[in-house]
Amino acid sequence: MGKASRCLTYLLLLVPPLVVSLYLLASFPPPLGPLPVPSYPGLESLPPDSRARQIYSEDWVEGGEGAYVDLPMGRTRYWLVGPENGRKIVLIHGLSVPSLIWQPLIPPLIASGHRVLLYDLYGRGYSAAPVGAAYDSQLYVTQLALLLQHLGWERTRLAGVSMGGGIAAAFVAAFPKLVEREVVLVASAGLLEASDLPRTAKVMSSPLVQTLTSNPLIYAYLRHLASRPESPSSPSSPSNGIDTPLRDLVRLQSAHLPGFNRAVSSSLRAGPVMGMRWAFESPEWEGRRVLVVHGTADHTVPSSHAARIGALIEGAGRRNASSSGVDSSANEEVRVLPPSFLPPFLPFSKFTIKNAVQQAQQRPFQAPKSKTKTKPKPNLTTSNDRVRVTLVADAGHALTWTHAREVGEGVCGFLAGR
Fold first, then answer.
1. Dihedral sign, CA of 401, 121, 132, 257?
2. Do 331 and 321 form a contact (C-beta atoms < 8 A)?
3. CATH number reported for the structural domain that contains residue 44 in this entry
4. Residue 112 lies in a domain
5. How far apart, in Å, are the Cα atoms of 292 and each of 32, 47, 91, 190?
6. What's the CA gap between 174 and 235, in Å, rounded?
7. Would you give per-residue pLDDT tens digits along the chain (418 residues)?
8. What does the DSSP assignment read for 138-158?
9. Alpha-carbon span 300 to 298, nearest angstrom
10. What is the C-alpha to C-alpha distance for residues 218 and 350, in angstroms, rounded to an integer?
11. What own/partner pairs with CB < 8 Å and gap ≥ 24 does 53-61 have?
12. Which Pfam families match (predicted)?
């Protein structure tokens, strides 16, 4: 065996254990230490005239009041708007776009008499990114609970979009006494599988890649790439209904906030985008009214997840009622728009949970190829209205932004008891 062959053999023997060791070290960070933990700053650290702050300014909530609160795991930015004596509701954003994603829904919520609380999750927007933290449901649930304590809110309605839906579900399970009867889940994540994630997301969210990209030289290069203007027609960045300002905001956060990429990657690994079945099955859903809204053209979280989430929540209520000796036969309805009859918006049709799940398993929901005025025939005869699943035709993952009128009307009608 030649010298080159022996070197190659030794290299092949040494590299795999080294890679595994680095991966394990990155997967199990050291203890956080004393509180408050060190953290990376948010968008307030950028110049006021920066592109990110032009898109998403600190006072973006028109007519509202904004402030910071220092919590044990990091500084949190929040905004309050609406009548002070109005019904309280918290809007929880998702994985990468901060609270700005809710902007179009604020006016109808205020008009319907709500006091609205918005805040940036750790590692996004103007909130700090705790160093070394696992961005999991425990971190996000604790952040919201402490924020509510700071504001003196004893009970509130909840609405979550995308990953925010998973956070809302975890909050219901963890702090049921802080949540009023109504909960809204928009394009909710929580039931995704690893196979659902794009290959790029899997690679970039791995601890090893995140450790390598923390190198100053590599991070500087990635920052340079992320700072470059994105071509609107770039095939590598499908919009899925997200318009340019929101895409730019995600890109600029990635480029200029040191904690953003770690927060997103950690959330993809351990956060409430996957593995949240336990939260949707919690017995704490019993007695609540739940609206699940999803777009038929959502390529990030397939619309079939809406029926699955509705089924889990409804099933949790039935199981809890059965264990309490209560007849749950009246709690078998979820409202779903079947794919062949999707109108521009929301005349609800009644279908059983069983039928909704069967539809989800057979094929994903599709937008109609042609408009039709034919009304769907009801398939069940129950007046129970506890869980409602609604699909919005042709809407993508950012439907709170792209289909604000439809979503706003549906959410406000639901909250009003219609």
1. positive
2. yes
3. 3.40.50.1820
4. yes
5. 36, 39, 14, 13
6. 41
7. 566 677 667 666 766 776 666 565 555 555 667 888 899 999 999 999 999 999 999 999 999 999 999 999 999 999 999 999 999 999 999 999 999 999 999 999 999 999 999 999 999 999 999 998 999 999 999 999 999 999 999 999 999 999 999 999 999 999 999 999 999 999 999 999 877 776 666 555 566 555 555 555 555 555 555 555 554 433 333 344 456 789 999 999 988 998 998 899 899 988 999 999 999 999 999 999 999 999 999 999 999 999 999 999 988 866 665 555 544 433 334 443 333 333 333 333 333 333 433 443 443 333 333 333 443 333 222 234 689 999 999 999 999 999 999 999 999 999 999 8
8. HHHHHHHHHHHHHHT---EEE
9. 6
10. 54
11. 55/100, 55/245, 55/248, 55/249, 55/252, 56/98, 56/100, 56/125, 56/249, 58/126, 60/100, 60/103, 61/106, 61/118
12. Abhydrolase_1
Q: Are 70 and 97 in contact (CB under 8 A)?
A: no
* Domains contained in the chain, number: 1
Residue 411 contacts residue 159 (beta carbons within 8 Å): yes
Among residues 406, 383, 416, the alpha carbon closest in space to that of 157 is found at 416
List C-alpha distances in Å: 52 to 63, 249, 389. 21, 6, 35
- Determine the Cα–Cα distance for residues 359 and 69; give it in Å rounded to an integer: 45
Domain membership flag for residue 228: no
Domain membership of residue 346 (yes or no) is yes
Amino acid identity at 166:
G
Rg (CA), the chain: 23
Pair 119, 147: CB distance under 8 Å: yes
Which range of residues forms the domain containing residue 333?
39-196+270-415
CA atoms in the 13 A half-sphere facing the CB of 353: 20
Q: Does a structural domain hold residue 4? A: no
List beta partners, residue 70.
75
Residue in this structure with the two tokens 């449901």, named with its chain if needed = 137
Check if the beta carbon of residue 405 is closer than 8 Å to that of residue 101. no
CA 316 to the chain's CA centroid:
21
Q: Report pTM.
A: 0.77
Please name the residue ranges forming H helices in 85-136: 106-111
8 A C-beta contact, residue 91 and residue 159:
yes
